[in-house]
Amino acid sequence: MKTLLNSSTGPSPAANEASGETLAIRGGQPLSGRVEVKGAKNLATKAMVAALLGETTSTLRDVPGISDVGVVRSLLEVHGVRVVDGEEEGTLHLDPSGAVSAHFEEIDAHAGASRIPILFCGPLLHLLGQAYIPDLGGCRIGDRPINFHMDALRAFGAVVEKSYEGIRITAPDGLHGASIEFPYPSVGATEQVLLTAVRATGTTELRNAAIEPEIMDLIAVLQKMGAIISVEPNRTIVIEGVSKLWGYDHRCIFDRNEAASWACAALATDGDIFVGGARQQEMLTFLNVFRKVGGWFDVHEDGIQFRRAGALKPVVVETDVHPGFMTDWQQPLIVALTQAHGESVVHETVYENRFGFTQALVKMGADIVVHPTGIDAPGRRVPRRALEQAAVINGPTPLGGADIIVPDLRGGYSHVIAALTAEGESTVRNVGIIRRGYEKLFTKLTTLGADFDVIG
Ligand code: EPU
Question: What domains, with CATH codes, occur in the chain?
Answer without folding.
Answer: 2-37+254-455 (3.65.10.10), 41-251 (3.65.10.10)
